[in-house]
Amino acid sequence: MAAEGWLTGGQVYDQIADRLRVRIRSEEFSPGSVLPSEAELCQVFGVARNTVRRGLAILEDEGLLVTVPSRGRVVFGGTTMPPYRYQVIAARLRERIVRGDLAPGAGLPSEVELRRQFRVSRNTVRQALSVLEREGLVVAEQGRGRFVRRDLGEGGRPRTSGLAP
What we know:
Elements: H1 12-25, H2 38-45, H3 49-61, E1 65-68, E2 72-75, H4 85-99, H5 111-118, H6 122-134, E3 138-141, E4 145-148
Antiparallel strand pairs: 1-2, 3-4
Helix pairs in contact: 1-3, 2-3, 4-6, 5-6
């Protein structure tokens, strides 16, 4: 990957995401291929590692990339399934939230129910739920369970006007 020169202006990570998105869509990085390392991308774009990470996080949120431990970031697409069960569970719950099957404020199935449904360990279920919490789709209430955020807007995205779950 040739150096692209320094990026300037506001929100450089958006520019990184835009450039990588173009390369993914043109299949320069085809589905299943591993992206260059963060260090390599830092050199290519002339930016700090945290800036590269923020750009990559945008593409992960869009579903274009999947992080695979010991491999790096892999281009998602085609018939390729996420490599880990927790990602499959998180994707199915996310889909139900976005479709409206799980309305804002609704309780998620319990860990026990999810364990039985997906035939996985408690740890795998908790990892999937943790992904949804980090994405801002789900909130945990001590002793009560996990719930879809009440302030979700169109398409299952948290509204930016309020901070309360």
